Amino acid sequence: GASYREEETGYVLVDPELCIGCGLCISTVPEVFEVNADGKAEACGHTTDENRAAVQEAIDACPVQAISAED
Prior knowledge:
Layout lengths: L1 E3 L6 E4 L9 H5 L4 E3 L5 E3 L8 H10 L5 E4 L1
Antiparallel strand pairs: 1-2, 2-5, 3-4
């Protein structure tokens, strides 16, 4: 899967089978999500204390529940 992890932070995972490429997560947290070659979102950054609320907002707003995060 498309995930990125650093030791002291959480990571975000986008399920490419579920993602419809709507871009909502990318517009919400551009430092964590980007569009891949298939036109789907993928995680390119990690969850930090500074962006945790925005990442949760992207998770909650995803119309197909394709995003998950773990600490």
